[in-house]
Amino acid sequence: MHSDSFFVMGKTHSVCQDYALAGKLAMLRNYAVLSDGCSSSAHTDFGARLIAAAAITCAESGALAPTTVCTLAKMTKPDFFSTSILDATLLFAIETRIGVAVEMYGDGFVIARRRDGAIEGYSNDFGNAPPYMTYLLDNARMQEYLKYNSGKLSRVYIETSDAAHRTIHGETAHESITHKETKVEELKIAEPTIAQFCTWAYSSRLFETNKYDLVVLASDGLASFIDSKDEAEPVENLVRDLVDIKTFTGEFMLRRGKRFVKSLADRGLRNYDDLSLAAIYLGELK
Fold first, then answer.
1. How far apart are CA 31 and CA 63, in angstroms?
2. Is the C or the N end of the chain the one with fewer CB within 10 Å?
3. Which residue intervals of 155-235 are DSSP H helices?
4. CA dist., res. 219 & res. 108, Å (int)
5. Domains delineated in the chain
């Protein structure tokens, strides 16, 4: 396996509040992590880095879990700053014996390339108001957030697969089929405990080596590409290009990220929000 990362500032930002890291843990397992800081909170570019670094430290002793995320929030709390510096999401992927385990706290995307060529996409949508770890440290903020958000979470699944080839005027055209499912989950507890809130905001998934060869984490900046008329480009139109990686040596996600953003810019699309990507390549089957 091999891991790498990439992040870039959005067109409407003056500082990048996304951060991504990839590498190997002490036990030589690959990891990939990203954190997306809240645009309306101060210094979350630092907070995102703190959370990403703390997640790696926690993962040294095992994969993240809802209870670990609670510990992580307390561990990263700076005494010399407001806790709002940690208003940031967390996506974490780690190599396991049978594949790659992904842990997700807040919004963002997980894009997985199957060995049969199909692309799967998973996302958590909190209506542009994701839960942040700071809410685990301040019950008043948690309650204020739930009143604003109504405790609603949409888990979205997208699958894009090659359907067929057809001939038009003597030329072969490529067709694909996209399937999309949305499941709404609501936190109906009026005053949830920290553990209940954390479990609702958290999700995990395992991608087995025998079925997948690439797992890419992406911040919600992937959904921020717009054209010259400020119309949004659907994420399902972008995922195939995002994972179209031929060579996985060296900084493969850095190369792909740069080419991805440039190719979209050439098509007149720009990302108004910061974008971070972190990936693990599972390798060829032996």
1. 10
2. C
3. 194-201
4. 4
5. 2-281 (3.60.40.10)
Q: What is the pTM of this model?
A: 0.92
Residues of the chain with pLDDT under 70: 62-63, 66, 163-175
Quick one: which H or E segment has residue 175? strand 171-186
Backbone angles phi, psi at 274, to 5 degrees: -60, 150
Find the angle CA(243)-CA(51)-CA(250) to the nearest 5 degrees: 35
Q: What are phi and psi of 72, to 5 degrees?
A: -60, -40
From CA 281, how far away is CA 1, in angstroms rounded?
5
Sort 170 into a burial class: Cβ within 10 Å, 0-12 / 13-18 / 19+. exposed
b (16+ CB within 10 A) / e for 31-58: bbbbbbbbeebebbbbbbbbbbebbbeb
CB 101 within 8 A of CB 63: yes
Write down the residue that tokens 């709390």 correspond to.
77
HSE-CB at 186 with a 13 A cutoff on CA atoms is 5
